[in-house]
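Appendix B. One record, verbatim.
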Amino acid sequence: MLVFFSFTIDLSQPVATIIKEHPEVKELLINLGFKPLSNPAMLNTVGKVTSYQIFPYLKLSEPYCSMVMMSSETNIENNRIQILKEILLDLHHGASPESVQELFNQHFKGVSALEISMMEHELMASEDGVTFEDVMSLCNVHANLFKGAIADVEVSDADQEGHPVYVFKQENLALRSAILRIRRIIENISKPENEPFKSDLLNGLKHQMTLLGQFHNHYTRKEKLFFPIMERYGHDSPPKVMWGVDDDIRKLFRDAESKLQELSNSDADIEEFLKAFETFSEEFEAMIFKEEAILLMILLETFTQDDWLSIAEESDAYGYAIIKKQSRTRTEENTKNTRIIDTPEGQFTITFMPKPKNESVANRETTQPFGNGYLSVELANLILNHLPLEITFVNKDDVFQYYNDNVPADEMVFKRTPSQIGRNVELCHPPKVLDKVKKIFNLLRSGERDQVPMWFKSERLGKFVYVTYAAVRDDQGDFQGVLEYVQDIQPFFELESDLNRDID
């Protein structure tokens, strides 16, 4: 117990409870070293489950500062999170992983995934010149540092069949199995006794690589559904770092795929493929550890039931890795809320209750002045959804505010889901394209350009896509945001004449 002012604080209570009861303590505690409390999102998440007893004061050898129990008059410069930050800074400044590991093991018997998240946030927000690229480059070293020391979070629902966490882990099991099968095929493909079956083995290898390539769905669901909710709770650093590593892993897989396409009957070609595949699989298996030991622990400690339900509802839009959606059943009690998932190990069912939608418009059917005519909100929505365009609007504050539903999610060129609404546009894109996104917005915001067009062939959809980014300005010419509209122009290439005004 510590006495502050004229009242007593019970340090076993959650941080948020203490501050709610004694708001005047917040600033004092921040000054004492609990800097995450200055972030409202951190207070509303971590603070509700964390007590100060979880942050024991530690006595560390130089160059780390000494942490001792001190009175309220003393300014504590470093807490547990700060110490983790200092340890990782040593890594970034060239300390050997072995020496840092020894120091970490000496002083930390356990560390929570939330502490790791806050540490990364402080590291990247500090004046030490550490960027997310720096953190990303040492991501595996960081993960190895925490191995065996990360505290598990027990949430009973997460073990139920159909829970997004359960599905996520099942995918990792299936992906691991594909890696093992590929290694087994490679092991047997060069054996002389298997020469008559070499063609079949090569076909099996290609099939397993195709299955393994479905990890893209796994990563995309993580990036598009998990990350937006994490960011709303203040955990913006781990998503940025992990997305960058995801993209590196995707590139390594493409490299392995290209070696697979070059495969012939020569052992040299097989060795080249094996080298590329093992480079990929090493990084891929390291990511599985980061997902299950760090990422999911953050989610389980932070996300609400409504968060998990929204993820379950939106997961179909991005698909699954090896685990396939089989069908949807309907019952009187639970219409459209149950789906059956087929896996190599059998079937399981995902069930959820839909989140009620809160309408800010009192009456969507009431006709009102709209542009040069009259429309209701409902009719305007129908019109926007019937346009042969994918429309996205990002407001002047760079917040993703709207998208239309002109086609099902699996047919979208750029897949959108409701959980992305309210997200900063930079966070909606992988780190590798951020510079391009910023350039587009700067050109449109400044008035240097009114539109920025792009076009490409979508192999997945078999479409030739034309994308336009257009500045939206009001009657006074003030910038209000960016409108992105995406059009399939493949039919234009297939016109058989320059005139057709007849009706078939």
